[in-house]
Write a structure and sequence with these properties.
With 276 residues, chain A is mainly alpha-helical. Chain A is built from 11 helices and no strands. Chain B is globular, with a radius of gyration of 21 Å. Classes of the chains: A mainly alpha (276), B mainly alpha (216). At the A-B interface, helix 1, helix 5, helix 8, helix 10 and helix 11 of A face helix 3, helix 4, helix 6, helix 7 and helix 8 of B.
């Protein structure tokens, strides 16, 4: 195997690599074994601590938490897609009166930490409920990110398409609605699915305002059983499995709809549309 | 607004703590993330597998859960019991961010065309020369934009420390918020402080890019 960093290894290098491989495998396995031994020593594998995760009532509570989490993420993304379309197209508008406000809104919600936004929605003048403060917060933040994705998607449509449409005598709105957006959507779908992963992870912030969801269910479990570590491991596993499924979906959509080459790479957290 | 002005010390302290959190976690995750990236692009298959596993697990776990591991679960098994909150916050944020730093560095290394290194070797440069004068300078340039967005995301992510009692900006925002109309001003003030930090990183990245472009 050759890479930018090193040449195709010769026989001596390969022998050296084999030694390194064995040494690092031993060290890593040792560390892992020590950690497992340490946990066992601390009694962290005791059945009582893991019991809630095989007890139907608690499994059901976790399942409900997962459904709530997924519902929040999906709801937020749906609204965010709509908002993202509006503001993304707004940012591309030729009219200053449309472009500048869109730019301001998008930049603001991208730069503000989601938790700060949720706290404002929950404890500010709006005083939304826990559930809606998380969902609305997610909507605003992801809407801003999706606006950038929309903009990048529209700009990724080949220039010739737009020119051809104008040449046929279409008007600006027609070009956007019938030519640019439909093609942009196809390019955007993988990026939107990736954004779902971010939204799913961010629903965990509902923990702070006691919104329904996995982390809140987890808290009530560890308060009852005192099994903080076990609960955290189970929650992490659930999140990881969900996100890996979404990642696989995004990869599939990328191959299916866009092809390997063209990928929307935007910096979702960068203030301003300039390419840093 | 009067509340904020009356207790501006609290706000400034919170701002300072956010800066501390961001700078310390930034340094830690840059260091650890680079080591991870080196493991991921290196020739040792075991290390490659270990780093890949780490990145996959950490990237798909919410940061809040990292904080739960460090602040709630770890003391339960006797770790980090007397550790200062700032250190624990830095650990949680760094463990999370280093996975993203690793990906940014890796993408930078992969962005250097294979031909560059092959040409360098062909004209007889040693491994050290190939790295320092051909591969790494190009990789650094490619790394700047994704790294800037990782660091910006990290700065915003430090807000989660508020959930676990670190009195930084988001924590103070909660302290001042009291369901009144005044909260909008308070919110905008705190949001603006974050925007300042984000813009600083952004400006730094633009500066670096411009400087390195001129050197090319």
């Amino acid at each position: 195997m050759s890479s930018v960093l090193f040449d195709t290894p010769g026989p001596r290098t390969r022998a050296r690599h084999r030694i390194y491989t064995i040494v690092s495998a031993v060290v890593l396995a040792g560390l892992l074994a020590w950690f497992v031994w340490y946990l066992a020593e601390q009694g962290e594998f005791a059945y009582e601590l893991w019991e809630p995760f095989v007890t139907p009532a608690y499994v059901e509570a976790l399942w409900q938490g997962l459904l709530d989490t997924l519902a929040m993420a999906v709801l937020a993304i749906l609204f965010a897609v709509v908002a993202g379309f509006l503001f993304g197209v707004g940012k591309l508008s030729e009219h200053r009166m449309l472009r500048w406000p869109s730019w301001l809104v998008v930049e603001f919600f991208r730069a503000v930490p989601l938790l700060l936004l949720i706290i404002f929605l929950r404890f500010g003048p709006l005083a939304l409920g826990p559930y809606w403060s998380v969902v609305v917060g997610l909507m605003l933040y992801n809407g801003a990110v999706l606006a950038e994705i929309t903009r990048a998607g529209v700009l990724a449509v080949p220039r010739g398409q737009v020119e051809a449409a104008y040449a046929l005598g279409m008007r600006k709105t027609q070009v956007m609605v019938t030519i640019q957006l439909p093609q942009a959507v196809k390019i955007m779908i993988p990026a939107i699915i990736s954004q779902c992963i971010v939204a799913l992870k961010d629903t965990s912030l509902g923990f702070y305002v006691l919104a329904p969801g996995l982390t809140t269910v987890g808290r009530s479990i560890w308060i009852e059983f005192g099994n903080q570590l076990q609960t955290a491991i189970v929650l992490a596993a659930i999140y990881i499995v969900c996100n890996l499924i979404l990642t696989a979906l995004a990869t599939w959509a990328q191959r299916r709809l866009v092809g390997e080459r063209k990928q929307i790479v935007i910096n979702p957290d960068l203030v301003s549309g300039r390419s840093v | 607004m009067d509340d904020l002005l009356a207790e501006r010390d609290l706000v400034l302290q919170a701002f300072w703590l956010t800066i501390q959190l961001a700078v310390l976690s930034g340094l830690c995750s840059l260091a650890f993330g680079t080591v991870l990236a080196a493991m991921r692009v290196g020739p040792i298959s075991v290390l490659r597998g270990a780093a890949t596993t780490y990145v996959t697990l950490v990237r798909n776990t919410p940061l809040l859960l990292m904080f739960i591991f460090v602040f709630v679960a770890a003391p339960n098994i006797g770790w980090f019991v007397g550790t200062p909150f700032l250190v624990k916050g830095v650990i949680a944020v760094s463990v999370y961010t280093s996975a993203f730093v690793c990906e940014a560095v890796r993408s930078g290394v992969n962005a250097v065309p294979l031909g560059q290194a092959e040409a360098a070797r062909a004209i007889g440069l040693t491994f050290g020369q190939t790295m320092t004068s051909v591969v790494l300078p190009q990789a650094f340039r490619a790394v700047v934009p994704p790294m800037a967005s990782v660091l910006i995301a990290m700065t915003k992510n430090t807000s989660i420390a508020a959930v676990f009692g670190l009195a930084e900006l988001t924590f103070r925002m909660r302290y001042f918020a009291n369901n009144s109309a005044d909260d909008t001003t308070i919110f905008l003030t705190f949001a603006l402080l974050y925007v300042v930090l984000v813009e600083l990183i952004s400006a730094g990245a633009i500066g670096l890019e411009r400087r390195w472009r001129a050197a090319r």
